[in-house]
Amino acid sequence: MVWEEFERPGAIRAFRVILPEELQGEHWFDAQPVAGGTLVRHTIDGEAVGEYEAIWRDRIEPAHDRILEAVLDNIEAAEATAPAGQAAVTLTEDMRRVVLEQKLGFVATVCPDGTPNLSPKGTTTVWDDTHLLFADIRSPNTVRNLRDNPSIEVNVVDPIVRKGYRFKGRAELHTGGEVYEHGLRLLAGRGFDARRERIKTIVRIRVEQAVPLVSPAYDGGASENEVAARWEAHAETLAKRRHTAR
Ligand SMILES: Cc1cc2nc3c(=O)[nH]c(=O)nc-3n(C[C@H](O)[C@H](O)[C@H](O)COP(=O)(O)O)c2cc1C
Description:
By secondary structure, the chain is an alpha+beta fold. The chain has helices at about 50-80, 95-100, 140-150, 175-190, 225-245; strands at about 1-5, 15-20, 25-35, 35-50, 105-110, 115-120, 125, 130-135, 150-160, 165-175, 200-215.
């Protein structure tokens, strides 16, 4: 039997049969991040005809299964004994202050086709020293993406002071149970409308990287008060415009 390796989009390694002609097939491995680990999958897609129908069924397929099971078992064992993923970082007092004050985070996730998905969450708040959370009220794409790939980034910025933080980590989805209930209580305690029928999922984020964001408005040496005064004036102008439009 003659094989060749080929490029298959989304696959880690992919192979196909060149000869014999009675055995046409491709097989490939793909890996995708899922909650709590990585899903490694092996797929065979092909057809055996003529005498190769019996050869495949009686000889190749059973051996294939045994070898691949052993390979996948080895990967699983290696993964189980590997050091845990990235460590959580401890949120500083200032990080917690900004999140608690602003309540609004811009949440980025990864779509199945690799493109970004970014949307605002006005229920963004602090869970504890290493976790944030937000409520999924109407966030179908974010939640769908997180189900397949828990990677997430949240930016929380004070738009007046023009400073904030970007948090990167992994998200867990809770639609019931202890974490969901605690999430509802936390949100209600902070003045959010946390009715159970409104909140489909509590998205809890384990923060693995937290980096400050500072506007280039400070590059020329402006003080925080000067920058804030400028954006307060801007906010007042917009407020006046809204009031006159009513
Ligand atoms: C300021 C603002 C705050 C929002 N806060 C939330 C929120 O906390 N939870 C939520 O599920 N949707 C919230 N939304 C609505 C979602 O961002 C919106 O439905 C979005 O289209 C969801 O996209 P997604 O499926 O990509 O997450 C908010 C929208 C705005 C404009």
